[in-house]
Amino acid sequence: MGNNSHPINGLMDSSLQNLRSLVDADTIIGEAITAPDGTIIIPVSKVSFGFVSGGSDIPSSKQPELFGGGAGGGVSVQPLAFLVIKDGRVDLLQMNDNKTTADRVVSMAPEVIDKLGALFQKKEKPAREAKTAGDDPQAGTEIHIDL
User: Fold this and answer.
1) Which residues contact 114 (CB under 8 A, 6 or more apart)?
2) Can you name the residues that pair with 67 across neighbouring β-strands?
């Protein structure tokens, strides 16, 4: 290697150049799609990638230098949302396929609190008005909460 360049440098440069050609700005903010009614739809994605390379010089008495190396990488593109432009208005339509259980619980919290509050109010009312509990059509109402 007379030019002070190690073969691993060439391997890494080649691999990174190929990854750059796969992932550009159009991958994250996609190309605009125009619908027949004039609506413009622009996809928005999350791009993740990983890269690894390595090599080893192999000592040899017969040849000056032997080199063995390899490189690999992976790219993941996940759609997140769509920008929708129609009649001068811009909307962001998010994709919610990957909601976790915790996300669902947090979004349902106000509804759960309202139902629990109504349940406790019902339990207090029969104690105060024991004579009319049989006349109340909602006295035996059940509350179901699906998570």
Assistant:
1) none
2) 57
Q: Look-up: residue for tokens 């997140």?
A: 80
Report the distance separating Cα 71 and Cα 93, nearest Å: 38
| In contact, 45 and 78? CB cutoff 8 Å | yes
* Reported pTM: 0.44
Closest to 57 (Cα-Cα) out of 70, 68, 46: 68
Q: Count Cβ atoms below 10 Å from residue 56 Cβ, excluding itself.
A: 11
SS3 call for 118: helix
Q: Where are the domains of the chain?
A: 1-98, 99-147
Residue-by-residue pLDDT tens, the chain, 147 positions: 445 577 777 777 877 777 777 666 667 788 899 999 999 999 988 888 777 777 787 777 777 777 788 877 777 888 888 889 988 888 888 887 656 666 667 667 777 777 777 777 766 655 555 444 445 444 444 444 444
Instruction: Give me the residues paired with residue 84 across strands.
Output: 41, 91
Q: Which residues contact 55 (CB under 8 A, 6 or more apart)?
A: 7, 8, 11, 67, 68, 69, 70
